[in-house]
Amino acid sequence: MFSKKTVKDVDVRGKRVLVRVDVNVPLVDGAVVDDTRVRASLPTLRYLVDHGARVIVVSHLGRPDGAPDPRYSLRPVRRTLQRLLGRNVVFVDDIVGPEAHEAVSRMVDGEVLMLENVRFDPGEKRNDPEFARALASLADIYVNDAFGAAHRDHASTAGVARILPAYAGLLLAHEVETLTAMLTDPARPFVAILGGSKVSDKFGVIDRLMDCCDTLVIGGGMCFTMLVAKGVDVGDSIVEPEWVDSAKATMAKAEERGIEILLPVDFVVAEAMEPDAETRIVAREEIPDGMMGLDIGPTTVELFKNAISEARTIFWNGPMGVFEMPPFENGTRQVALAVARNNRAASIVGGGDSVAALKKFDLEERVTFVSTGGGASMQLLEGVPLPGLTALLDR
Length: 395
Ligand code: ADP
Ligand code: MG
What we know:
By secondary structure, this protein is α/β, with parallel strands linked by helices. It has helices at about 35-50, 75-85, 100-105, 125, 130-135, 170-185, 205-210, 225-230, 245-255, 300-310, 330-340, 350-360, 375-380, 385-390; strands spanning about 15-20, 25-30, 30, 55-60, 90, 110-115, 140-145, 165-170, 190-195, 215-220, 260, 265-270, 280-285, 290-295, 315, 345-350, 370. It is built from 14 helices and 17 strands. The chain is elongated and about 70 Å long.
């Protein structure tokens, strides 16, 4: 159960509501090229509008240097939000200055106002109490719906929540609920698929998943550190030598608990990580010196697909290979397809590159849940508290 109060637990009519969303979308030449995050913020914004709140939208965009920078203005996002929300969105070129206050004072119930990029103020990332107070002075209540930024201890994600009555938005609540339910009460078998380049990024997550999953499928660059721990010579594949001992400990723990770890048995190898590289398929013990494994091989694909097809809960984070390049995309595509085809399982996908892979293969609509938060979802799964969540009012 979600332990925080949500926007549905408070009467918002006529109130000035400061809503922190994460509409940190990619821009190309000032145009929004992927509106996923804006769409994800709609349920909460619609709820507030429909319930007569005065909705003040705040977000970051990119990584400006604590000062106004036209490349990171939220102005183009206003147009996208306005179109998707189907109502007028007023924009001010200001965050907490007189212009913002002036615009807020003119608002009527059900109106939406968007402030400029909150990271244009150096107080945002520092979580400067004075900046948090300035933000709070714009509103009566605070709603955090920025799951993708919930792992940040910033003024607009955490600081302001200590000043105003603070509630969770619907996206944030749904993200936390889905990921928490997966860890606490998964339908079995629960198959967790992990990949990506570095095992060191994911040890915390792997450790926590071992408390609840039945099978751990490991591909991507991270599998080579595990294979080295098993005494396999992996040629020039990516390895983190300082993590070999932890990898051994992980495998011992899995064995103790009866968790099956599936590692690749063959690879697509090449001399260089290049889009036109010449490739070969080799068994995992036969990776030649001077070559590296850049994707899982066809026998591994079958092995992984079988495990995935049996699952009732699937969590997937981390590509199986260098999916950005055509010669090494097949393993990730096949795994993504297998996840999509298992209609009996609740399938949850998290991680920036994994979600990018799903989009690339046009499978985003075919899984149960796609997390909008890369870093935040990993931190939640590791069991590390999210500052943007802890600061909210308890139920
Ligand atoms: P996510 O963002 O989904 O959490 P990661 O950031 O951990 O995923 O890892 C994604 C990256 O891992 C991709 O850029 C991919 O190219 C890289 N990768 C996957 N397999 C390999 C491999 N065998 N060797 C090197 N890099 C790999
Ligand atoms: Mg990544």
